[in-house]
Specification:
This protein is mainly alpha-helical. The chain folds into three domains: about 1-80; about 110-235; about 250-395, no CATH class. It is about 80% helix and about 0% strand. The chain contains 14 helices and no strands. Helix 10 runs parallel beside helix 13. The protein is flat.
Length: about 400
């Protein structure tokens, strides 16, 4: 009977409500209720008397209906406060609380920006000297070919090359000081030795020359790609303004994307943009699925925290148990934080979908608002700026622009 009722619920309620709200509430209620039934004899007896041993068809139907209605009402309550729960996770707190958590996010941002700056320095140092060094080594090699001296090997040069190759294998930026010290040492040996002479050394001078050239080319490409990667990490994890939580900074990143790319105040047009996306069922479905997964993880995190508090009350006051109390006190917050981290990652995926939707549907939005169609990117930025300033009446000034209406 409960299965038939679930089928009816599925047919009435939306997929988003069922997956994001109803299923988490159902799963957490069932799992924790089962744990209470197994662990505590008073609850076990009550469950046997009022749930397990109910035999009459009318009693079963009544009990099933009551449970279903209770779960649906609770799920709707959870669904209605999901946005508030998300905003709490984003760090929309009183300023004195936010200041306690902001330093951790400042350190995360500082580490990323420090590594970006390091990649820029390495790239600039190698790029500015790459062609000059290449020409110097070729010139030194030609000078050495006029001599008959044979390269005897140089442990220090080979050690520096090996150290640089280890950095490459460990995906670390090359140390430019070590690199250019190796270049200077190689240049000296190229000038003083003939690379064509049979080398008694295990590593020939010609091989050292090739390895240094490859390391410089690799270091240049690596620094450029590392800069791009870290810039993407920074842009997807942080916006213009720093929030006190990881999720809050990820949430801010989408507004920073719209501003950086189009000078668009996304917060003021996101509802209109959603209407435009709805005109494309496939695009809207992708956006809704991403939002549904985000809501699911947010609700799971909060339900874990709520049930942790319930269990702490039960194990600390109603049925005291030091061992179980300690286990729940440690495991509950860890599991809740795990859900939170998963939700933050899903928030990044949702932002990717939303930014793609902005890229694709922004002209549909301008048409729907009867805004003039821009001819290039700079003109488009001016249009978005005009739209954003439409509600700005500071100083009594009112902004104006001309509408474009469809002729059909």
């Amino acid at each position: 009977m409960f299965g038939s009722l679930l089928n009816n619920i599925v047919s009435v309620f939306s997929k988003n409500f069922l997956i994001a709200s109803f299923l988490p509430v159902l799963a957490f209620t069932f799992m924790n209720g089962a744990a209470l039934y197994v662990l505590f004899e008073p609850w076990h007896q009550w469950g046997d008397q009022h749930v397990i041993q109910v035999k009459g068809v009318g009693d079963v139907a009544f009990l099933t209906g009551v449970l279903a209605i209770a779960l649906i009402v609770l799920s709707y309550l959870v669904s209605s406060i999901t946005n508030s729960l998300r905003r709490i996770m984003e760090g929309n707190w009183p300023e004195w609380i936010a200041h306690l958590f902001s330093p951790a996010q400042e350190r995360r941002l500082s580490v990323i920006e420090g590594r970006i700056a390091e990649a820029v320095v390495v790239h600039e140092e190698i790029e500015s000297r790459f062609e000059t060094v290449k020409d110097r080594l070729i010139k030194a090699r030609k000078e050495g070919e006029k001599k008959s001296t044979c390269y005897q090997g140089d442990p220090k040069l080979e050690q520096m090359i090996d150290e640089l190759q280890r950095m490459r294998s460990q995906n670390r930026l090359l140390d430019t000081q070590t690199l250019f010290q190796a270049v200077s040492r190689l240049e000296y040996f190229l000038q003083e030795n003939n690379v064509s002479a049979l080398p008694p050394a295990k590593r020939s001078l010609s091989l050292c020359h090739m390895q240094i050239h490859d390391l410089m080319a690799f270091g240049l490409e690596q620094a450029e790609l590392e800069y791009v990667r870290l810039q993407n990490v920074r842009n997807s994890n942080f916006g213009t303004f720093l929030a006190p939580t990881r999720m809050g900074n990820i949430a801010n990143s989408i507004q920073a994307y719209a501003e950086r790319r189009y000078r668009c105040n996304l917060d003021s047009v996101v509802s209109n943009l959603q209407w435009c996306i709805q005109q494309s069922p496939k695009g809207y479905s992708v956006l809704q699925d991403a939002k549904m997964q985000l809501d699911f993880l947010i609700i799971c995190s909060w339900l874990t925290l709520v049930w942790t508090l319930i269990w702490l009350f039960i194990l600390g006051i109603l049925f005291p148990s030091a061992g179980w109390f300690l286990l729940v006190a440690l495991a509950g917050p860890v599991i809740s934080y795990g859900w939170y981290i998963a939700a933050a990652e899903q928030y990044r995926a949702f932002n990717d979908v939303l930014s793609t939707s902005l890229d694709i549907y922004r002209f549909d939005l301008l048409k729907a608002l009867h805004m003039p169609m821009p001819s290039d990117v700079e003109e488009e930025r001016l249009v978005w700026g005009q739209l954003d300033r439409l509600a700005d009446t500071e100083g009594g000034e009112r902004h104006n622009f001309r509408f474009e209406h469809s002729k059909t």
